[in-house]
Task: inverse folding
């Protein structure tokens, strides 16, 4: 498994976290998977709301903790899936949930609590780790897991750095 750091930065508030998600969302395309991890309250849902915004989702995006998988239509006719695995206790439950079927679709998938599906997320994918720092700040780390085309990753890195520098 190849791991390549794309960006590590500080987000002082929820709106910055959401904006970083939106920048990533504009870069994503059908078949991409984003695994968003961090403790409760780290900003995973805010990041994914931004990601959905960047993809062009117009419906309100809420954490699907009780439904587990929420589907949203995309402007190009595709789908965005927001998956929340918080309530699962082992990877086998993610398999039984039908998570694997989603990976077969030409959709963009964002997964909260991906560690609960350990070993089931196919490479390549992006791992976003949110770590709380203080009252509202957080460290944001974005890594490519597996082999993405290098030019795609460089384009993402440039977009994200521009967002960080211009705020």
Result:
């Amino acid at each position: 498994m190849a791991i390549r750091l794309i960006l590590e930065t500080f987000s002082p508030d929820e709106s910055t976290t959401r904006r970083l998600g939106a920048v990533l969302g504009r870069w994503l395309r059908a078949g991409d998977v984003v695994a968003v991890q961090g403790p409760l309250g780290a900003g995973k849902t805010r990041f994914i709301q931004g990601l959905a915004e960047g993809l062009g989702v117009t419906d309100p995006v809420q954490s699907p903790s009780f439904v587990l998988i929420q589907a949203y239509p995309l402007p190009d006719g595709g789908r965005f899936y927001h998956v929340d695995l918080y309530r699962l206790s082992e990877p086998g439950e993610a398999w039984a949930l039908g998570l694997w079927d989603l990976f077969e679709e030409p959709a963009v998938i964002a997964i909260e609590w991906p560690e609960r599906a350990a070993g089931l997320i196919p490479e390549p994918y992006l791992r976003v780790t949110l770590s709380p720092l203080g009252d509202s700040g957080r460290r944001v780390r974005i890594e490519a897991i597996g082999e993405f085309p290098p030019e795609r990753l460089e384009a993402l890195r440039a977009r994200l750095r521009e967002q960080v520098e211009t705020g």
